[in-house]
Amino acid sequence: MVFHGGMKALYAREITEAERREIERGLRTSSAFMVRRCQILLMSVDERLKAREIGERLRCSDQCVRDAIRAFEAEGLKSLHAKSRARHSQQATFNQAGRDWLKSIIRQTPRAFGYETSLWTLDRLAELAQREGYSEQLVRAETVGRALAREGINWQRVKHRINSPDERYAGKKSDAIG
Description:
Blueprint: H1 17-26, H2 32-46, H3 51-58, H4 62-75, H5 96-105, H6 122-131, H7 141-150, H8 169-177
């Protein structure tokens, strides 16, 4: 048995004359977002078209239409303007205590924290920061590097140097270099 129960049709509420003027003005702006929202609202109010029908006419999804109508119900004319997509949460991953912790950790050997190497990498520091609870999630190496830079520490990749067991190595090296 196939059930064909559909959703209840969603229409925009009746608009005031002031809202109509603002919506019609929005049809002539350079913002594609605003033009589309205004078209959707006017089709819903004036022609009483369903979301699917408006979507077909405007070549957008019916979900886009429903989102526009719901936004208008909730926000009024403010819904005609595109919202910022920037993150609204605090973006600094390491607070001052976390940065102080990082400064103290890089002066210790990674072996003290269970690593089988004596060199820190930004990835290792990020992993340890999560393990020790200084970051809620595993952060990227660049994030650790920026936190260190805020503390005046210029992080550079480790340079591998050759150390010879020869006692006269330093003298031979300086003679070879000149």
